[in-house]
Amino acid sequence: NPFHGADVPDPQFFDHGDLVGVLTAQPLDRILDYKAPEGGCHLGAFVEVPLGPRKVLGVVWGAGKGDYDRAKIRSVIRVLDAAPMRDEMKQFLTRAAEYTLTPMSAMLRLATRAPGLGDPPSMKKVFRLGQVAPDRMTPARARVIETLNDYGGLAFTLKELAETADVSTSVIKGLAAQRAVLEEDRPRDLPFPHLDPDHSGKTLTGDQQAGAEALRAGVRTGQYGTTLLRGVTGSGKTEVYLEAVAECLSQGRQALVLLPEIALTAEFLTRVEARFGARPAEWHSGVTMTERRRIWKMVGQGGAQLVVGARSALFLPFQNLGLIVVDEEHDTSYKQEDGVLYNARDMTVLRASICGARVVLASATPSLESWANAEAGKYDKLTLTDRFGVAVMPVMKCIDMRNESLPSDRWISPSLQRAVTARLEKGEQSLLFINRRGYAPITLCRACGHQIGCDHCDARMVEHRFLKRLVCHQCGESKPMPEKCPSCEAEGRLAPVGPGVERLTEEAVALFPDARVVTLSSDMYGSARALKAEIEAIAAGAADIIIGTQLVAKGHNFPQLTLVGVIDADLGLQGSDLRAAERTFQLMRQVAGRAGRAERQGEALLQSYQPEHPVIRAILAGDEDGFWRAEAGERRHAGVPPYGRMAGIILSSTDPQEPFDVGTELARRDGPLRQIGAKVFGPAPAPIARIRGRHRVRLLVTADKGAPLQAALSRWVAQVRLSPQMRLAVDIDPQSF
Ligand code: ADP
Ligand code: ZN
């Protein structure tokens, strides 16, 4: 290489003493100058730098500006043992920050969620499963073994293992003494086992084959492109996109599959293992710290070919990302509602377009946004029309609740009861769906009419009889169920009002005393592991009636389930939220799709007091495109997403008046918004007017599709000064409006 002379400087490398600009995850919003350390450093290197009295993590973002006294500039302390951040990652973070109006420091925090990134390669001990069985099995010991088994032989530190298995550390030490578990030095971050794209594919149907081929061809282009993969639940979307993953792996590139729910990963990992012969890396909040650190590093070094994870996996330092799949792409949990407000689906498209990867958005009921993008030709469309094998879509019927005679405090109508009884006689499973956790949504004092609310939020406390507590679903605060009314002190007059999943279970047990009734609600299982075990047991036939919340709507396979009863199909239709129709439609179709996945014909019964409501009628008719067209028409008419742009501004403070005052001032000084033709609405109390003791006010801004909204918003909000207790959060494309 003629250019590789010693006198040709590498623009990607800074020699000892050169000035470098370092971005830290501290809320400073400035790139700080430092001197490159002894031995120099690469552009993008992860470094430790001094900041005041502290040492903090940072990334070498570029050359230093050198605009202040060189003598005062401090040196980088050391370069960390991690692959430098790639240019495409820097671009991704920068553009995501611009889009969501988030400070770069907060974006960097998302990208460095690797615990112990700065740790020296320590001599910490970790534990693995040994070959010897313990001399005596106790429940605690069994939990340790089970935990190690469950995590596929991953290493845990002593503390992590004790916490995950819920045992004291002495139990683990006892097992280690017998070599039933092995204590080792922390390995130097082992790569993940090799996934073989040709390990064992299924024989695809004609439809699936064509879809898989189209996705494979897309991956082979090595260029950005998005495909919306539609198909009813059970049509084989997963089988089809696993073929795209196989193609990506054959090309030697990395793949990422995002799932909306941790509870789904277990089932999915088993499928991946069957398809590729080994387990991929798994990234979500339930993964141990040791393991997260390993994944972060291995992804960066190319030692992890496939990552299966939650939305935050999008910020892992992939070296060579070729494909991102967003499964159940319509799911609202892809929107992060805390801290950095981003929608992982949109950020996926951004990341892929920067690094030249393919995107597959898979759903039985796509979001209106994705549907519109596909209609407009921005995304490729791929549809699987049939269910795999002999399974067909369930028959959908409405139970008109106005014609059912139901005593008060009963929710299972006689018609639904008959349908369940018929299933019980045939030995088939039924699912009763209600989208409400807990026992009852309202606890009312029959003496004074007081409803128990949260002390910190504008929300009711929900009785959870299973936990024997009242819980606030906004802030998580809980307290024991009081004996007396907190308002009038009357004793024994507090009464539950309305149904929750626990109360429905009670009713089902009373109506069907011989049936095995199981409740599936996220708050009733201590761990993802317990939930997974329950789901597997149900799939194997260990229940006759399943009572479930939203959790069951998502992708689980229950082959013996032939009846779905929706207790309150009208629940999502109330309120003024413009997305309510879309959400109800999606949820009802997802839930109904649980019925009849194997050889047996399924049936879905929707209990409704307004069967003539257009959304209920569209669900019954199964006319998906008709529904989307009607929805799209209304949104276009209202000029809201995806046909217009929208942002929510939430002002919050411990002081009740201040947010209104600042909001009013902003609404008045709307010049920067008017310049781009944007309009501001509000201030009005936010959908939840108080959370964790903070009073919240919302402004909504709408603009035309092409308008430079972010730039105008920045100029606009910069006009007001905020007191220390005030917070202003911008939510681009809010979920509810
Ligand atoms: P979706 O993702 O659309 O809900 P899945 O890919 O999960 O559908 O398929 C539903 C079920 O049918 C799964 O158990 C899957 O293994 C099975 N299945 C789908 N296609 C095939 C096929 N071609 N051969 C064997 N089993 C299949
Ligand atoms: Zn609360």
TrEMBL record:
<feature type="binding site">
    <location>
        <position position="445"/>
    </location>
    <ligand>
        <name>Zn(2+) 1</name>
    </ligand>
</feature>
<keyword id="KW-0347">Helicase</keyword>
<dbReference type="GO" id="GO:0005524">
    <property type="term" value="F:ATP binding"/>
</dbReference>
<feature type="binding site">
    <location>
        <position position="485"/>
    </location>
    <ligand>
        <name>Zn(2+) 1</name>
    </ligand>
</feature>
<keyword id="KW-0067">ATP-binding</keyword>
<dbReference type="GO" id="GO:0006270">
    <property type="term" value="P:DNA replication initiation"/>
</dbReference>
<dbReference type="InterPro" id="IPR011545">
    <property type="entry name" value="DEAD/DEAH_box_helicase_dom"/>
</dbReference>
<feature type="binding site">
    <location>
        <position position="475"/>
    </location>
    <ligand>
        <name>Zn(2+) 2</name>
    </ligand>
</feature>
<keyword id="KW-0639">Primosome</keyword>
<dbReference type="Pfam" id="PF00270">
    <property type="entry name" value="DEAD"/>
</dbReference>
<feature type="binding site">
    <location>
        <position position="472"/>
    </location>
    <ligand>
        <name>Zn(2+) 2</name>
    </ligand>
</feature>
<dbReference type="GO" id="GO:1990077">
    <property type="term" value="C:primosome complex"/>
</dbReference>
<dbReference type="InterPro" id="IPR041236">
    <property type="entry name" value="PriA_C"/>
</dbReference>
<dbReference type="Pfam" id="PF18074">
    <property type="entry name" value="PriA_C"/>
</dbReference>
<dbReference type="InterPro" id="IPR001650">
    <property type="entry name" value="Helicase_C-like"/>
</dbReference>
<dbReference type="InterPro" id="IPR005259">
    <property type="entry name" value="PriA"/>
</dbReference>
<dbReference type="GO" id="GO:0008270">
    <property type="term" value="F:zinc ion binding"/>
</dbReference>
<feature type="binding site">
    <location>
        <position position="454"/>
    </location>
    <ligand>
        <name>Zn(2+) 2</name>
    </ligand>
</feature>
<keyword id="KW-0378">Hydrolase</keyword>
<dbReference type="GO" id="GO:0006269">
    <property type="term" value="P:DNA replication, synthesis of primer"/>
</dbReference>
<dbReference type="InterPro" id="IPR014001">
    <property type="entry name" value="Helicase_ATP-bd"/>
</dbReference>
<feature type="binding site">
    <location>
        <position position="488"/>
    </location>
    <ligand>
        <name>Zn(2+) 1</name>
    </ligand>
</feature>
<keyword id="KW-0238">DNA-binding</keyword>
<dbReference type="Pfam" id="PF17764">
    <property type="entry name" value="PriA_3primeBD"/>
</dbReference>
<dbReference type="GO" id="GO:0016887">
    <property type="term" value="F:ATP hydrolysis activity"/>
</dbReference>
<dbReference type="GO" id="GO:0003677">
    <property type="term" value="F:DNA binding"/>
</dbReference>
<keyword id="KW-0547">Nucleotide-binding</keyword>
<feature type="domain" description="Helicase ATP-binding">
    <location>
        <begin position="218"/>
        <end position="384"/>
    </location>
</feature>
<dbReference type="InterPro" id="IPR042115">
    <property type="entry name" value="PriA_3primeBD_sf"/>
</dbReference>
<comment type="similarity">
    <text>Belongs to the helicase family. PriA subfamily.</text>
</comment>
<comment type="subunit">
    <text>Component of the replication restart primosome.</text>
</comment>
<keyword id="KW-0235">DNA replication</keyword>
<dbReference type="GO" id="GO:0006310">
    <property type="term" value="P:DNA recombination"/>
</dbReference>
<dbReference type="GO" id="GO:0043138">
    <property type="term" value="F:3'-5' DNA helicase activity"/>
</dbReference>
<dbReference type="GO" id="GO:0006302">
    <property type="term" value="P:double-strand break repair"/>
</dbReference>
<dbReference type="Pfam" id="PF18319">
    <property type="entry name" value="Zn_ribbon_PriA"/>
</dbReference>
<dbReference type="InterPro" id="IPR027417">
    <property type="entry name" value="P-loop_NTPase"/>
</dbReference>
<dbReference type="InterPro" id="IPR040498">
    <property type="entry name" value="PriA_CRR"/>
</dbReference>
<comment type="function">
    <text>Initiates the restart of stalled replication forks, which reloads the replicative helicase on sites other than the origin of replication. Recognizes and binds to abandoned replication forks and remodels them to uncover a helicase loading site. Promotes assembly of the primosome at these replication forks.</text>
</comment>
<keyword id="KW-0862">Zinc</keyword>
<dbReference type="InterPro" id="IPR041222">
    <property type="entry name" value="PriA_3primeBD"/>
</dbReference>
<keyword id="KW-0479">Metal-binding</keyword>
